[in-house]
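I hope you will forgive my troubling you with a question about protein structure. I set the record out below, with my sincere thanks for your time.
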Amino acid sequence: MSDTVVPVTAMGQASPGSWATVPAAVGAALGAGALLTIGPAAGAAGWWTLAALPLAALVALLTAVSFADLAAQSGPGGIPAHVTARLGEWPGRLAGVLDLSGRLVAGAAVAGAAARYLLPGAPGVAAAGLVAVVVAPAAMKVAPAPTLLRVAGLVTIVTTLLFVTTGLAIEPVVQAVSAPAGTPGTDDPTGLLTAAGVLFFGFLGAERAGGPRARVGVVAVVLAGLGYLLVAFVALRHLGGARLALSPTPLRDALAAADGSAIDPLLTLGIAVGAVLALHVLLTGAVGSAAELVAAGELPGVARGPVLCAAAMAAVALVLSPTTALALAATLVLGAHAFVNSAARQLCRVERSTWVRTGCCGLALSVIVGVNISLTSLLGALAVLGVGTALCAAYARRGSRVSAGGHPR
């Protein structure tokens, strides 16, 4: 197998490393995370969610720097290619399966969560419709203009600021009865790692925004983290952890508690735009990972098509609840990021952009946070990894036998 890194560029995005990628990356991160992460994170840790957020951001920051250093040394490419180039065929295969499946499940989680806001009476239909809206241009080989993606990112950022401003301007209603100890949403420092793993989901895509320039990726992660911190504070301030943990639409419910229902149509519009942008980024990442696995002989050529990836997203959205898909996706992607950081450990000092050993630290934190999200998500991720890796290995062996017989692979 060749160690050449396969170039992968995001559909319609500005060149990696450009500051122009930051608005879209931050908007996509907020569009994915604000919809999904605040409720489950609050359910695990209550107000300790605010302490878990910096830990999740730290994992994303370390991975962003590791990814940028790998890209600077090996050229453009995605997780499977970089890991294969530094660690070999089997680690590259494992990382590819984790990254591809993680982004597909993440897309299903975003579509399902947004559907609860857009069409609560038929969320399955709305989720499938959102995925269709995103994949239609890709299926016709029409790439969204970078300007359009930046505008979508800015719309999501402005919507987030509107939600935060409204929530901070109005005093919360005092809760008449406190939730009993042990109830989901009560303040619990032992749930900090679980909350950090859930909140990490909100940084998907931001870690790649910088391409070979670590500074761009770091800025994208920091801005997304600040947005989450404000959203989480406002939501906890008005709903409290217990109510937030039970809410299927936490942003809408927090807005209603802050007497801001008048701007609910604007919130819904921003949620729709942010969800579409997040789905675009996740679909792009999934297609890129699939293309690299195809190029490495791990998957058949049909697997790299955006329609097949989108169909998988829609199918998962119909089978798994957004919260379940969120936990599984975060576990899978944290596993992929552990391989990225492990690959970055192979870089010598002169090849790294900082004196900090981001690879070692990122590897340790990715594993610690990933295995503590939930036992169900960990077992699910191991099952996906086992089945996916076995299928890739079987296809690769078949391709090797065909090549040895003198026929094209």
